[in-house]
Write a structure and sequence with these properties.
Mean pLDDT: 83
Shape: globular
Number of helices: 20
Largest sheet: 9 strands, mixed
Helix content: 25-40%
Strand content: 5-15%
Low-confidence stretches: 398-436, 444-455, 510-521, 528-550
Oligomer: single chain
Radius of gyration: 24 Å
Strand order of the largest sheet: 3-4-7-10-6-12-13-5-11
Amino acid sequence: MEKREDLRSILPYLGVVVEGSSLQWPSPVIEPLKAISRGPGHSGIQSGELLFLAISDLRHSLSLSSQRLSASASHGYALFFDELLSTVESTKWFAEVLPALANLLLLFPSLLEFHYRNADALIDGVQTGLRILNSQQSGIVFLSQESIGALLTCSFFCLFPTSNRDAKHLPMINFDHLFSCLYETNDEKMENKIKCIIHYFERICSHMPTGLVSFERKVLPLEDVALCVTYPKADSWSKSATPLCHFEVHRSGLIEDQSKEALEVDFANKYLGGGALHRGCVQEEIRFMINPELIAGMLFLPSMADNEAIKVVGPERFSNYTGYASSFRFAGDYVDKRDVDFIGRRKKKIIAIDALCGMRMRQYRLEYLLREINKAFCGFFYQSKCQQYQRLFKGDGPCGAQLDQGIQGSDSISRSNRSVGLQEAPYVSVGTNEGIHGDEQIGNSEEKGGPSLEHQYDVGVVTGNWGCGAFKGDPQIKTTIQWLAASQALRPFISYHTFGVEALKTLDEVNYIEVLFYGHINIGQTTGVEERKKENLQMIIVEKSYSELM
């Protein structure tokens, strides 16, 4: 066990230790956890105040006392469990949920051992074990939902070492800041964020889910690498012969509520999760509250570089909610009825891509437009289409009359050269087992051992105003960038949620988009506007003049 490179990379961040050939908690931790697992009659823990004292004792047993928790964390735990929860809820928590979580912590070392014993056999030739997925190294980690539950329980008990996380550019992972912010702000949104997490723990303690979740770092290499899609330059985009894909506009509804099987865009911070475990409560943070299994990725995924994206497949949703930002409220249980793929992941694919922040007028410069379109493309592309992308970026055009037989055969929306139209569209149910990197190996395994992949390339993109809220991006430009990136990635459609943004009220009008005004139908032609307007923005097809922007 101790010789595994994947385990060695993550071990300093876990709290458990290797003893002989097995993983264990340090012995001083075991008896206190056993006492908590037997209930308040044995542990004496019946309040948030006493819970935090027990957390402090556990941390001392792990030699973590020198790694200070947030100053107000103790007050936050006491406030939530002793004042904000009802007497009935608090009694149930300490009598039933907390003991079950302690049992899960006791199982944690054996869950990890089982994980590593099976990691090498999950997909032929692909490393899937829990490890630090370092920047510029594409890779994938598979975790059982039970293992994720144990990891998030470690976060709740603040048992993860934190001393070296900054050096690795890893986000915060313990929950002390979450509870500290509750006390310091006395903010209802913080209370309701924690309610989502507590509800998740209640659910898994009453019935542990049995599926898998995968976390993948996607990279567009900056230099040429065999069989890899590399980071496209501006000239490559201007030469692209890819037709624009189908575009749907939705003026109501939410990305997470859509019924398609699609890439659902997380408007991410470069540190996965952003302010999920702090004061943040916008699109990404809300997603992490209603799908708490996403938080597990914060343990081992360092910040994203400009040429990277993160893909998570299979996270279960546990909570309903209303509101946004300061009005966010937990709205009860959510039963996730998504189908699962043949290895047990829910057919939910979340793509985390981080937009540039606070660029103001600089966002219109070519270098930053290129960065944004390549960031989106990194999130959307299929690695298996590498050679086809290379041809299309060179302007060679579709292969014969079609882009790809596999895409044409399964795509209900024609990708042949045509006039591109924007339209209001109802949701359409689409199914797939599309894969990238490790996922492609899964697809190959499925084809060998079971039914062939159905509608493999029907997976489009569901998105909205990426980078346009707190990050102050231009929603018209971000719309266009995502459409171009999805089209170049050979996605069959992009389903766009406007969230009522005034600047996009005419998005479905044909004359709004310059590509239609000029009658152009492929990416190279739309990004070649500088041939007509030397001073204009090379990759913007929105009908705006340079003088208006500047």
